[in-house]
Every structure is written in C-alpha cells, then in structure tokens.
Records
---
Amino acid sequence: MISNWRRLALVLPLLVLTACLPFALSAGTAVPAEPQPVLVLKGHTRDLANAAFSPDGSKVVTASSDGTARVWNAAIGSVLVTLIGHEEAVRSAAFSPDGTRIVTSSRDGSARIWDAASGTEQAKLAGHAGMLEYAAWSPDGKFVVTASRDKRATVWDAATGKVVAELEGHKSPVMRVAFSPDGSRIVTASTDKTARVWDAMTGAAVATLEGHQRMVLGAAFSPDGTKVATAGSDETAAIWDAKTGARLATLTGHERGVLYIVFSPDGNAILTTSSDRTGRIWDAKTGALLHTLPGHGRPVMSGAFSPDGKRVVTASHDKNARIWDVATGALLATLPTDGSEVQTAVFSPDGKRLVTATFDGVARIWDVSAYQSR
C-alpha cells in the first residue's frame, strides 16, 4: 500500500502547479482559452446574409432571408427595432456613415431606407426589374447605390428616394457595388466577367475592367481611390488603375474561385477569400503573395481587416471564423459558431469586438481584445 507520505509526494507537484497557474495567466504566459461569444442575437427565423456594427459600435444590424432586418443593442443583445416591409429575403443591411439610418436591399427588387432609432421606413427605392444583391452608402450619406440582377446599378437620393443615375452597360447581373472614398465614382462587379467604374452623379462610364475569364464577384476601391481590386471566379484577383482601367497586377495562387476582396485600411495590403478554403494576404503595390491563411474546411465566404489593419478575420462555411495576424499570417483565434455556417464576420469600430452572421439565423458578438497581433 502507498503510504500517506508517498501520496503527498505524488500530489504535491500538482498542487503547486495549480496554485501557480493564476500567476502564469496574469503574467501573460498562457494562451487565451478558446473564445466564446459574449452575446448571442436570436430572433430571426431564417439564415443571415450579413451583420454590421453601427459607426459608434453601440448597435448591430442584421439582414435575414426571413424578409426582415433587425437592429440590436450591441452591449446587452436586446432587439431595438425590427425593420418590416420587404416581401422577400433581405440580402444586405448597412448603417449610414452617421449611424442614423439603415439601407436594406432585398430579393423583392427594392431597397429601403429606415430610421435606425425608430425603425420607420423613410424611403422605398423601387424601379429595378430584378432581385437586388447589394446596396451601399456614399461616404457623405447623401446617396445610395444598388446592385441588381437586372444588369443595372442605380444611384438614389437617400433623402427623397429619387433616381439620380442609372449605371447601364453590364450584360449580366451586377453582384456588388461600392462608392469611391470621395464619393465621385462607383465600381460595379458583374457576372459578365467585367467590373466597371462610373461617374456617380451622371452615370457615365469611366473605365471597363476587362480580363477576368469568369464571373467577377467582388470589387473594392483602395482607400486613396486610385486603384480597384476585383475578385474573380476564374481563381484570380486583380488590381486596376481606377482612372484608366489598366491592369496593374494579377493575384494568382487560389485554386478555386475568389469570393471576396478588400483593401487594408492603409491601402498597403489586400485580403482575398476563396472557395479553395483559404484566405490570402497580398501586397497591394506589387501583387505579391504575403501569406496564405489555411485551415478552414469549407469555402471562405468573406473577410475583413481590423480598423488598425493589424488583424484580419475570415468567415467560412466550415462553421468557424478565424482571426489572423497580418504581419506574420499566424492564426490568433478560432471562433466556433455552434455548428452553423458563417457568412460574414466584421470587427467593431474600435477593433475590440467582432460580429458573425450565420446560417442558423443567429448573430454572435465576440470579445476579441485578447487576440492581438504578435
């Protein structure tokens, strides 16, 4: 039989280790535990298309296939207002730059502008002949641009709901739209294999970005407005001169279609996500691959930079979002979403939180302040 002294000798090291563990944690030597959401936003009855923070970080808006959008208190998770009026799935929802209004786009062919505090519908933007895929605000909040499967994009006066300009020329559905940082131009991405740059107020074509061999699924302006980056289902991304339309670089390396593309806040890097189950970070000046972000088990649908540009998040249908260090490409954290595909993930304006939108109709808010670049 083991004596009491021998039992003590066996147990004592474990007691010492347990006692020392809190000090090790406080000294910052331990890796943070697997993150868990601090808030779970439930109420939608179908999948979410996206979720986004308000400019001040106090609210979250969600867009759902149940035909509604909802505004939530980002501190306690309560529903503030439900935006009811669309007749089909809501494809996108976004706060205005000042946070007072929300624009939604829907498969019912309309976009709508709502008061973010009361949920009152302020304007219905109707006139497209097909389903809408996306809507975006101008930087000054005076205009909205919509992307439609009717092969057009339309610019609207956000105060009156009247049409300002029709962007016509694409031969297939328009999937994404974005204003330039100064609001003077718009870029559209289409399944007709092109992206196009337009004058935002007149609708005149400025440049056609031709060269992709298959559908263009995403497009984004650089922060200084001089470049456009495009995501193609031909397994490539590209960087273009926004004024002339000249191709500056082709980003090759993905093994399946590129689904999403975005510039870093300083414009020096680009993040792409792909059906090949990876994200990739590129040098925005040269097009050189900086880091491959592996590990997801299914397509990576979208991604985002943190406001300081030091981290990125990738959202995947493998039911996880992942946070990465931009400088090294190292994985900082995996955010498990309780068994549901992640469609989008974005940081809060202060970079301390993150919201994920998933196919179970739930948005989750995470505290990611512990997961910083190394």
---
Amino acid sequence: MIRPRTGVWIAAGAWLACAAAASGQTSTRAHEAAGVQESDANRQRAAVSDSTETAATASAPTAPATATTASVPPVSSAGASDPWPLWPRAVLDEPLVTDRPDFTESTDAVPFGHFQLEMGYTFTYDRERDERSRSHTAPEFLLRAGLIEDLELRIGWEGYAFTEELFSVETRRGRQVAREDASQGAADLSLGFKRKFFEQDGLRPHFGAIVAMNVPSGSAGVSSGDVEPEVVLAWAYDLSDALSIAGNVGLAAASDEGERFLQTFASLSGAVALSDDVGAYVEYFGFYPNAEHADAAHSANGGLTYLIHDNLQLDLRAGFGLNEEADDFFAGIGFAWRW
C-alpha cells in the first residue's frame, strides 16, 4: 500500500520539476530577447550620436594647417635656413673688434662661422742725412676667419708698395746734384692663427696669442726671400666702459738681405670711446733691432675709428718716429668689414 502512494508523489514531483524547468527556460529566453533588444537600441543610439558628431564636425570651420607653422621662427644657427649648415655661426650681438689701425693686435678672435676683412692705405716719409724717401702701400689686406670659438685663421698681405727716393750725388767737379729713383713690388704673404685664452677676470687681463709666418711670395727687392715665423702675445685690460689699455710682445726670426736675425717688438696702446660710434687711441711701438746690424726703431702714433654699424668700421691714423732709425712720418686710412 505504501509503494503505490510513493510512486504518485514521485510522479507529481517529476511533473513539477519539468514544469519548473520549462518555466526557467522560457524566462531565460525572455531575458536574452530583452538583452538583444536593449543592445540593438544602444547601437541605434550610438549610430545617431556618431552621425550627429560627424555632422557637427563637418559643419565646424577648420583652421589652416600652416597657421602654426608660419608662427615658428626659422632656425638661424644650424637649421635648414642657414646657408652654412655644416658650419654653424655664432650670434653677432657685439660690435666688431679690429686689428687696425694701430700696431697693437687685439686679443679677440672673429666669432666662429664669420669672416672679417681689414684693408687700408699708408703713406710713409723718411729723411736721413741727404736722402729722402716716400712710399705708398696698399691694400694692407688681412682676412680673418672664425674657425671655432676663440680661434681664427689669418691671411695677410701688406700689399703693393711704390717707393720714391730722392738723394744727392757729387759730380766730378764736386757739385751736389739731386737724383731720383723709384721702385715698386709686392710684399710677402702671411699665414697664421689667433687664439684667445682668457677673458678679463679681476686683475687678470684679456689674453691671446698669434702664431704666424711670412711666406716668400713677394717681388724681388721687396720679399725677404725666406720664411719668417713669429709669435705675438697680446693682452688688454678694460679700465672702464669707455677706457682701456692694451699691448703686445713679440718675437720673430726675420731676414735682412739673406741674413737671419732675431727681432723682438713691443707696443703699448690706450683707447677711449668718445661716443657710441667714435673712438680714439694713442700708442707706442718699437722694433729691437729694426734690421740686422741696425739700431732699435721707436715710433708713436694716434688715430680715430668710426663705427658705421656693428659690422663696418672706418679708421684713420698718423704717427712719427721717436729716433733716427724710425720713419719720420706716416699716415693712413682704412676700413674693417665683418660678415
């Protein structure tokens, strides 16, 4: 009697389980269908939003692409706009410093990547006993090229000299007769380097050095006929914004009529800025000795400089000898141009 009742309850439980399972599957399908419908709706809203943004973007004005590029300044040191891309140039923010018109060489080198041309003309007059001479020399060429910071290459040529000599000779009858002789020719070429070692710091002055040599390339009678090396030590000291002093000490292995001799030379110069554009200087310089088997020559001179702009300067000078060995009078004009 128990077994039949148990079977009924088992059958009833089985039926309820099947109904619940069927109901669960139906509910799951409904949820899945609802989820699919929600995803479709989201996609439709996203599509509407994207189309709206695209339309807004298409209707909005667009800035030209070159506006930002045009506002960027060109590179001046080593960029594509630099005509010397393999040789970057220093920025020229100071007026040029020249090695003329005075005898004293400056301590500064030409800024790297730039050139400086210095040229001029000098008239010289000298009288010794009954002999007088006048000479004209030009173009006193000096090309300076800044190779790296504080180092320059120097190519110099004093130029072509034309000399007139007036002297007297005694005739057979004992009369003094004036004679005139003229000569001309090209001077030797000079090659060298200048290096600046120190800037002024306290009591220590600006300091630089020049190593150069004259190459026998001039005309006969004017050329020394031999290589003449020389070393120049240069210093300068700024006493104020407008006043400075400078000097050189040098040693050269010079030649005179085929004979080699050691020649020392020195200078001392004082300069003052009269205005932003005009400067003046006074100077002493000497050679010890002036030539083989000759005395020392001592000279003094002064001059003016006029700065047209930071890269162009004009100059003039005049001087006289302090002893018999030096030229009695000399004067000259010139210019310096940096680029």
---
Amino acid sequence: MSKGRKVQRRAGRPWLAALVAGLAAGWLLAGVGVQPAAAITTSDRTWKADLLGRLGYAPRLVFVGGSRSLRLSPAYAYRRTGLRGFNAAVVECMNEDVWAMLHLMVKRAPKVKRYVVWGIVPGTISLTRQLDSALVGDPRLRRWFPLSLRQAQGSGLRHPVGRRRYAGDGGLTWDKYAAEAAAGVSLAEKLQPAIEQARRHPVTSDSISTTMTRGRRYFEDTLAYLNTHDCEPLLVLTPIHPKVMQVMRNDHWDSRHASLLAYFEELQERYHFTVLDFTFISSFDGDPAAFYDVSHMKESNMRRLLDAAVRQAPWAFGKGDAPWDEPSEPQ
C-alpha cells in the first residue's frame, strides 16, 4: 500500500471541547502527565503515539489489538522475557490501526528487532468501517494511508471515548471495567446479556467471509510488512467466557472457527507467523472467575495467557528456533 501525501487539518477543532471535558473528568495518563493540548485528541491512537514518543527506548516487544489486549502488561512481559515492550492496543481496533502504529514504530527505530503479539478477535479480520479520526487527523498516523482513502472517510469522523488511564509503557491501569467491578457490579450481571444474545442469535454460517475487504487487505499487508522487517508475529485468538461459549457453540460455530484456522494456515504458506488459539480458557489454564465480562479479562488471566504464550511459542519472544527456521548444521 502506498502512503499518501500529507493534508492540512480541517478548520476548527471539534474535538477540543471533548478533550477539555475529558481532562476535567480525569483522563490523565498515569505517570505521564498532561500532554500539550495542540498535540492530542481523546483518541487512544493519539494517546499511544504520544506515549511512544515519550518512551525513552525503542520497544522490542509490542502488543497490538483491541480492548481485549489492553491489559497485556509490558512490565510483566519484561520480567518473563527480558524484552522491553510497549502496549499499542487501542479500543475498537481495526487492522488499519495496527498498520499505522507498527509503521510509526519502524520509522522511529528501523533497525530494532521486534516481536509482535497481536490479539485477534475473529470478527475483525475483515472488518471495514470509517477510520478513527486520529488516523485521518494525526500527522504521525495519517501519513501511512493514501490521500484517496483519507478523503473518502468524509465527515463525522469519530473515536471511541472512554475513561481510561495508561502507564508510560502503554499498559492499561484503569478503565470502566475496573470501575464497575470496584463498584460491586458482578460478573454474572455482565454475562447474562451476552448469554441471552447468544440464545437469540445463534451462529448460522459455516465459514468466515472470503471477501477481500479493505480491512482484510490491511491485515494481510501488515503480515507482509512485518515479515519484510524481520518480524514474525504471534497471533493470539482471544478467549470467550466459558458460560457464554457453552451457549454460543454449535455445529455452525465449530465449522466457522475451523474455516478461520484454515485461512490462517493458507496465509502461512506466504507469510511467517504463529497462531495460538486461546478461544477456550482451558488452552492457557485460564480462570473463569477472572473476567470482567464475556471477553475482557482481569490482569491475573492476562498473565496466565502470556505465560502460556511464552511456553507454547518461545520463538515469538526470541527464545529458540521457529518452526520455519532451517535446522542448524551439525558441528
């Protein structure tokens, strides 16, 4: 994909009122301080780009993905792997977000050997919708998209607004899920709507879409881009709470899930990457009580997931040979 020319910001700052209100409500980054108003919006994408610019080191371990990946802790990962990292995950992530953030990191430190852990939500592989406002307005991120795509987004650009706090390495320290749990909202209360939804709308398709959408193209192009820069990412299929999975799973679900894994196997003929299917918590010894809701896990479960990833795919963290590496010649 070619990158487009820079364009000037649109007149006015419609996000400024939201920004001021957000700062007043406590949207401050833990341990980072307030950024200059001209440099930020309330978008997670811009927050993460700001944090990356203040990091003080080039991260070797990078977490990307959506809100399910926000609690992957670079600090904990450093203790497990020795790799200094950064969490670049963003709320309501699309593949275009991953594309932009990784390009930004490579531009800042092109010679660094990186290890990327990408939290995958199956339904987002082909997801295509209007870009987040930061991908069109933030000059650090918009440069990675052609001008025609940015212009095609039209008016009414948005970003997911929420109350979140991040550490200096991008790791999440507080959000609405933590606030709800602290206020006494139970896991059962959070699961029941998802269970009812699964009952009302059972899975009926037997395969994932094969349409080459914009989102799917960026997904595949990002794999190719990483391989070009000596990175073979680890894709982790994120889990669903077992009580919801028990209702959701049927023969159609099994067939569709198998088609997703088959799609990854086909891509592995062209690109080097690893897939860990952690859809079921038994695959990483997860705790069903350590969830906030149907798909967002507490820190203890995220640590279990990361521990299992390091055990099952050590090469994705710089330990040992990958399956595609040629065997070493005997001495």
